[in-house]
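Recap quiz, item 2
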Amino acid sequence: MAPGLEQYLVLSAVIFSIGLFGAITKRSAVVILICIEIMLAGVNIALVAFSRFITPAELTGQSFSVFVIVVAAAEVAVGLAIILALYRQRHTIDTDKIDLLKW
Amino acid sequence: MMNNIPEALIWMIPGLPLAAFTVLFVVVRALKIRSNLNGYLSIAATAVSFAFSLWTAAGLFSSPGENAVAGFEWLNLGGKLVIELGLIIDPLTGIMLVVVTLVSLLVQIYSLGYMHGSKSLNRYFAFISLFTFAMLGLVMADNLLIMFMCWELVGLCSYMLIGFWYHRPAAAQAARKAFFITRIGDFGFLAAILLLFSSAGTLDVAGIHSAAAGGVISSAAITWAALGIFMGAMGKSAQFPLHTWLPDAMEGPTPVSALIHAATMVAAGVFLVGRMYPLFELSPTALNTVATIGAVTALFAGTIALVMHDIKKVLAYSTISQLGYMMLGLGLGGVAVALFHLFTHAFFKALLFMGAGSVNHSTGTFDMRKMGGLARLMPWTCATFVIGSLSLSGIWPLAGFFSKEEILSSALSNQPVLFAMALITAFMTAFYMFRVVFLTFGGEYQSRLKPHESGRIMLIPMLVLAVLAVSAGWLNATGRLTAILGHGHEHSWITGLLGIFTHPLAWISLAVAGSGITLAWAMYHKRWISAKKIAWTFRSAYTVFFHKYWIDELYEKYIGARFFNNGLFNLFNRFDTTVIDGTVNDIAGLNLKSSKAIRALHNGRLTRYSLVFLFGVAAVALTVIFTG
């Protein structure tokens, strides 16, 4: 039996939640960045699944996920650059220790 | 307009002393000239303005009348308040002009000797010039605002000159006291000016008088305005209960006491009431207040003068007492009566102060217990001082006799009680003046210092004043002087000089003055009656007099310290700290507390932020889903 829309969406939600859990609980900035990528991957699955099952004639969902991948690549580039700069300044990428910007 | 003096010269009367002040105080300082003009400049300026004053007064004496010298517009507030700087030249002004410029001139000449060798003489003569200008401005101004400004300016000069030796704490204190207490009176004057302006719509003296006479100002407003003006006069003329500054003002140089605190500035109060007299005439309440305060002050200050040891203090209380006499004259007899006494008093009291200064100059003290026997050592000072004392005591035919006579006779015909008080005062005046004379000039000299007669430069002004102390009363022998001031009628000079004895009052007042002198002679010269024994017999009264009725203590300890400082100001202070500061502090505190609670959210932890972010997004998503 080929998987239906439901199974894809459940997979998407599971991957998104794993990413979210990681993004909230992890302290290393690089891991947080990876987790965000995982969340985006979950979202991409949902987009493609919707497109495949609901409007199979058009490729709207697919083109959306291509955009997401492009933007995510840019985001990772910027994010890693910030983390690198932070590391040079503070010699750590532990987000619990980078808490200067508060009240 | 003026019958014979050109208007430009009238403007120069106050203008010249002002110019002298400007040169001495501003130009010399600005150019940093280390010159000692030593008073010659200001003396020259005052001499010229005295000559012009005499000219003006002579013109008024021969053909009296009120002349207005038109001025120029000085201030225009949208047409609602237009202040014109103009002058009134009437007999009242004429008399004051002569008194002010003459006494100022003589005092400055005297100062050349008395102040010889003092530091900062430029400052001294500068402020005497400024004072002369302000006083002349006060008597000539036709406008209440200008009068008030000059009024404050004489107060300022008084402050500056009392505190001339400002490094002496007593002098600085006395200057502050004088400034402060006269300011209480000035409050009344200012309130009266505002009241008159709001009801009459003008500050012009003539305009106010015509508004008052025409019934534009309500009678209640007239009474209040008159009382306010009198309050100002009480402060300046040291009337009870605002008299306490004048005895302390004796800390200033003696010529200053002679000029400001005996002859001119303290008489400004009498002049002010005289200038606004039409208002007072419309209000019997105000006139009665003036007369009563005057009589009470005369008696009250006289009793204190009986027991003072300091020669200048005796003269100061005597001045207060005589100013009370003038107020009594204003209240009962009118402007002419009071102004005549002001005129004669200025001469003999300035003379007495100069005599006291002359004694001080050679003995170095004002304490009469350390003097005595000066008659032989200082014959000229002694002779002039005795003339001044006789004149002040009211002995015929000296000036004081005639002017006192006018006041006593107007009191007798109006208020017998006040007349009795005035008569007792006359007795005390004769007694304390001759107590001074016998203690200072009679007996044996008490100290080892070798006193000597003062120099000619000091004696000449005293001699001039002595001549005036004798003869100033004769100016009114024909009744002309009081007649041009609007009182009585003219008669032959024989009636004036001798005819006065047809009335028993003249004999009564002579007898009273004579018995006062005799008592002083018996007590302090022959020592038949021991002064100490008398003081012991009447020790309760003596204590009260000696402590000046504890008025200073009342003011300083009770009203000043307890009521104001500890009571009222403390209350204000608490109100300020608890209510006003408290409100602001509480608002700030509330903000601080609430922000403390909120800032706990921002702890800088990325994980916390993302969690909150997640819940936020979830909340939005759920809201969208469930509300559609």
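Chain B touches chain A through ten residues (CB under 8 Å).
The beta strands of chain B are 67-77, 81-89.
End of item.
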